[in-house]
């Protein structure tokens, strides 16, 4: 008699959760033993092997114990699963094997009709997502980013992003999974709780439309922008090191512009104002609040500024939003004015009474005055002669 393989953990969990296959209650016959022998000897078909990253020399039944139940339920493996199922006998000794196969077939049926209208995820949807993400990763992906499963594959650095998105075969494989995932959500209050949006956030190399949940491409663009060196004509104007990044620049702006300091005034006279205002157009157009948590934390102040700029542009238009942003960054300070003092009224002068002038004598010299003057002059000359 052939010893029956143990039930895989995930399928065992499913069985306990409510799936059950009944047995005949009769001992296995020689023919039934032979049937199981034959089932276990059949190798995996080429189509199925390619789909689940196996080989054609691998017996199909062993693939059921590699935690790749998601792959086994895909169309390329449908014939393999049907042939194996038909040969597993329904008798006492192989009850666990029969139960495992029954559970797997039930699960594959549930997988074939996932939620497609964006509604709340069902238990079958949840299971499908979990198994899809735990499936072994393809060789053309693991060769560029070391990962055992799809959940571990997501590129997390700009270098990994460039490598991943420039490998079409790997991108095609991850996108194929996206098309088979349910279109459902775990929480309607969070856009990225939608299964497909979450998948795009981790694997899509295309930017999202305006206001849509951000993709992997958007997250990478934001990370690159935050770590871009600040332009020299700005950093030199406000005394920042040439190594200053956009993230550090935005943090500096938010810290300095709260007070009227020489640094603030230097900023408002420099090209930095235009750079700060342009950051909104440099940022991705997606809903920035849906960025992955790590990206949100690393670029917190930049994202806050970009959200403010983009919100103004979408509600007020480019011209009005530019004026509003300039006023927010550098509020206009009114010129100081001297308080107006009302002049003291000048009292009306009291009129001075006019007096009648007294008659005056003529100032012309008389004969007597001339004679006296002549005598004094002669006397003075005589004194000087002595």
UniProtKB/TrEMBL annotation:
Record has Signal as a keyword: yes
Domain of life: Eukaryota
Compositional bias annotation for Pro residues: 333-356
Signal peptide as annotated in the record: 1-25
UniProt-annotated stretches for the region Disordered: 332-363
Keywords on record: Signal
Protein name listed in UniProt: FZ domain-containing protein
Organism: Saprolegnia parasitica (strain CBS 223.65)
